């Protein structure tokens, strides 16, 4: 399954493009800043945040360690409650299963709630090819769908759109002007979506957490659309990544504290929908059939890998995006993959190991570690980025490899190191005058070019520390610390 | 107490004053300072780019250089972070060197950590009557957990006016090879950082890592602003001296 959405450009080209879009950058910076502040407020209010994070990590680590056991328990319980479970090895298979269900129901319309795994398997495209309309019912997703785009954030899909752009989209859809006022915008979407809810034969959701001990699917939302998606249509399809498990209801309590706080700075999500099997005979509403498709799509390859297994601990809160200095500059589309930001830079290469181009996402980081700090389950994303680079350069040659071989050969002995540095200082002397000018030869080196885009070159007229050491030492020993 | 300094390649070659200030400050605390000359670099440039074997070869110079030291002190949170966080990984299949790594980790400190947590310095008797803003470098603060130490040292300086830096925890965009490999992104990041620095109207920017400070200063100079950029050791030493003379 290819998850790279924009393959005709490199990561550098895509980010250069995004850097020129001041609308996008303002919109993204404004919203991520607000989310970051709200998160901080709500975690401070809760208190002991680090303990909560540690508890979260433990639960996720345990679950993933014994994932086969919990998946089995979950599937048994779903079936006991009257639901059906399917395991899909990849995206193609997952889409096929969903499509078969829809065809059997002769469905014309599917209403969907926000779900990243369905983006991953590109379910909308698959359905639409068969003449089945998919309507996104999360407001952000709805906007993105109207704009014929993809989400640029895993929690706030339309984070890159300004209010004015949204009003324009809605006006075009309506055939007359819709104002930029929040009320007008939501009223428009609500009216459109109500129609879809009433017509759809199938409701399709993702899954925030799946509870093994009871076979329940738990969904968080703020707009109430998930209520409608899971109660109105007769047939319900849940698509979930295989790692969405938690063992018990008690574990859910911890996650219900971690996820909304990390995602949007809310104490609690506005709506929490829980599906345990389809509608029972004594119940008034709910779907008559419940189908749960559990998707692998590259996930199980991480199991047992000490460097990468923890990526399956992710609860898709988006906190790492909001604090990432790279994401904040370029937004999500520049990553060119379904999952953007630090989680995407790690997850996308891992889920698509055979895709050479997606591997370059590991370069989209300065390794500052802000993502790790923000992650409610302590995933060491910054370490994983290094391990991904390590894996990548093993099979690659090129000038960078030659450079680092040279670095290693020279820096492993102080004699060669010193010789090299002396030579460099000479080069610097004639080429970098007071840090503002450099010879035309040097300025053609890519390294220098990259640096001087926004910086002057460092320049030193002094002797190195090691050259000054003997004198300094003597001076200190003689007690003439005269400076 | 005997302290060996791990100068780091950048300070050694480009910012010797940082090393000299650090040595003089330590000397004034009654410490015998040594500089084992067989050290070169922590290996981080290669490691961060994925060249583990290349990094390991360079890292060995530090294992040799500091074998006999009681303490190792360095003016870089990033390079000390490299030792603490990644040397065990580099030498995981080499039990003999792994032992040396553990030993090195136990005795290696970043400069401000060493002053505050080991020497328990509470007052250096320094004066620095200027408006100063502090940038906490990512690796020092996140990998090593150096959050309070530099501030504690800055706060005891007489006459200093510390101004909080907006968005201080945001990366300056250096990231070693990131700054040239992803130069567009890195440039955007350093510009945001410098916008925030200029907003504070500080006269001096202080930090604990020359990689970041070199990056930030490069952009500040390009904007032709006169704000001074100092390593914490330089600022403290200047402050101590101001008092003496
Ligand atoms: S990696 Fe951590 S912070 Fe990022 S989305 Fe996943 S759980 Fe949230």
Can you walk me through this structure?
Chain A has a 6-stranded parallel β-sheet, with helices on both faces. A 4-stranded mixed β-sheet of chain A has the order 8-5-6-9, sandwiched between helices. The model of chain A has no long low-confidence stretch (mean pLDDT 91). Chain A has helices at residues 11-19, 22-46, 49-65, 67-80, 91-104, 116-120, 123-129, 139-146, 163-174, 182-199, 225-231, 249-264, 319-323, 325-330, 341-351, 370-374, 381-394, 399-411, 414-431, 440-443, 446-452, 465-477; strands spanning 84-88, 109-112, 133-136, 202-205, 209-211, 216-221, 235-241, 245-246, 271-275, 289-295. The longest helix of chain A is centred in the first third of the chain and has 25 residues, at 22-46. Chain A is elongated. By secondary structure, chain A is an alpha/beta fold. Among the domains of chain A are: 68-301, Rossmann fold, CATH 3.40.50.10420; 421-482, no CATH class. The model of chain B has no long low-confidence stretch (mean pLDDT 94). Chain B folds into 2 domains: 3-118, no CATH class; 131-244, Rossmann fold (3-Layer(aba) Sandwich). Chain B has helices spanning 9-14, 16-28, 44-48, 52-65, 77-90, 95-107, 111-118, 138-143, 149-155, 178-181, 183-199, 210-222, 232-244, and strands spanning 2-5, 32-34, 71-74, 108-110, 131-134, 161-163, 204-207, 228-231. With 245 residues, chain B is an alpha/beta fold. In chain B, helix 12 links the parallel strand 7 and strand 8 (228-231). The chains are: A alpha/beta (483), B alpha/beta (245). The interface between A and B is large, with 66 and 72 residues. The structure holds iron/sulfur cluster. Residues 262, 314-320, 343, 374-377, 379, 381 of chain A line the site of iron/sulfur cluster. Iron/sulfur cluster is lined by residues 262, 314-320, 343, 374-377, 379, 381 of chain A.
């Amino acid at each position: 399954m290819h998850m790279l959405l924009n393959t005709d450009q490199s990561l550098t080209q895509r980010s250069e493009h995004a850097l020129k879009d001041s609308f996008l950058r303002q919109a993204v910076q404004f919203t991520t800043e607000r989310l970051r502040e709200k998160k901080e407020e709500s975690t401070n209010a809760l208190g002991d945040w680090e303990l909560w994070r540690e508890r979260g990590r433990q639960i996720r680590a345990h679950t993933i360690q014994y994932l086969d056991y919990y998946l089995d328990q979950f599937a048994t319980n779903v079936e006991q409650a009257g639901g059906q479970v399917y395991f899909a090895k990849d995206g193609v298979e997952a889409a096929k299963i969903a499509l078969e269900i829809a065809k059997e129901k002769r469905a014309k319309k599917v209403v969907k709630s926000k779900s990243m795994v369905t983006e991953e398997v590109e379910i909308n495209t698959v359905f639409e090819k068969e003449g089945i309309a998919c309507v996104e019912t999360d407001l952000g997703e709805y906007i993105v769908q109207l704009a014929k785009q993809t989400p640029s954030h895993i929690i706030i899909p339309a984070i890159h759109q300004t209010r004015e752009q949204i009003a324009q989209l809605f006006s075009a859809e309506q055939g007359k002007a819709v104002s930029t006022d929040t009320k007008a915008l939501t009223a428009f979407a609500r009216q459109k979506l109500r129609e879809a809810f009433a017509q759809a034969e199938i409701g399709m959701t993702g899954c925030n957490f799946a509870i093994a001990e009871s076979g329940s699917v738990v969904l968080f939302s703020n707009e109430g659309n998930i209520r409608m998606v899971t109660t109105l249509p007769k047939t319900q399809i849940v698509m979930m990544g295989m790692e969405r498990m938690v063992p018990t209801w008690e574990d859910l309590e911890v996650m219900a504290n971690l996820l909304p706080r990390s995602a949007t700075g809310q104490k609690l999500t506005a709506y929490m929908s829980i599906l345990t099997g389809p509608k029972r005979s004594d119940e008034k509403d709910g779907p008559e059939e419940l189908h749960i498709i559990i998707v692998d799509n590259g996930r199980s390859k991480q199991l047992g890998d000490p460097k990468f297994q923890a990526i399956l601990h992710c609860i898709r809160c988006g906190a790492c995006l909001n604090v990432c200095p790279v994401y904040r500059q370029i937004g999500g589309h520049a990553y060119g993959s379904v999952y953007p930001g630090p989680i995407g830079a790690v997850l996308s290469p891992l889920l698509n190991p055979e895709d050479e181009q997606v591997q370059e996402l590991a370069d989209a980081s300065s390794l500052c570690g802000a993502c790790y700090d923000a992650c409610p389950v302590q995933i060491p994303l910054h370490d994983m980025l290094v391990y991904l680079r390590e894996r990548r350069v093993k099979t690659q040659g090129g000038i960078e490899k030659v450079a680092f071989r040279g670095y290693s050969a020279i820096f492993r002995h102080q004699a060669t190191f010193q010789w090299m540095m002396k030579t460099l200082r000479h080069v610097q002397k004639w080429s970098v005058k007071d840090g503002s000018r450099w010879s035309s030869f040097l300025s053609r080196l890519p390294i220098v070019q990259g640096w001087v885009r926004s910086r002057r070159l460092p320049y030193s007229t002094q002797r190195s520390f090691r050259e000054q050491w003997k004198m300094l030492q003597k001076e200190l020993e003689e007690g003439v610390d005269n400076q | 107490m005997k302290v060996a300094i791990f100068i780091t390649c950048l300070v050694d070659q480009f910012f010797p004053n940082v090393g000299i200030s650090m040595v003089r400050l330590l000397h004034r605390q009654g410490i015998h300072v040594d500089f084992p000359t067989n050290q070169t670099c922590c290996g981080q440039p290669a490691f961060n780019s994925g060249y583990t074997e290349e990094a390991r070869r360079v890292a060995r110079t530090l294992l040799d250089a500091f074998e006999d030291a009681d303490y190792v002190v360095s003016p870089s949170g990033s390079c000390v972070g490299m030792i603490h966080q990644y040397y065990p990984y580099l030498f995981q299949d080499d039990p003999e060197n792994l032992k040396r790594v553990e030993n090195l980790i136990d005795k290696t400190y970043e400069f401000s950590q060493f002053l505050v947590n080991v020497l328990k310095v509470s007052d250096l008797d320094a004066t620095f009557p200027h408006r100063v803003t502090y940038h906490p470098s990512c690796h020092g603060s996140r990998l090593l957990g150096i959050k309070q130490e530099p501030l504690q040292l800055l706060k005891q300086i007489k006459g200093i006016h510390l101004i909080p830096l907006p968005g201080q925890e945001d990366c300056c965009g250096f990231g070693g090879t990131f700054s040239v490999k992803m130069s567009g992104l890195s440039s955007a990041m350093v510009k945001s950082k410098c916008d925030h620095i200029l907003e504070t109207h500080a006269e001096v920017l202080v930090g604990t890592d020359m990689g970041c400070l070199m990056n930030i200063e490069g952009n500040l100079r390009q904007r032709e602003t006169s704000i001074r950029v100092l390593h914490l050791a330089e600022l403290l030493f200047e402050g101590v001296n101001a008092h003496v003379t």
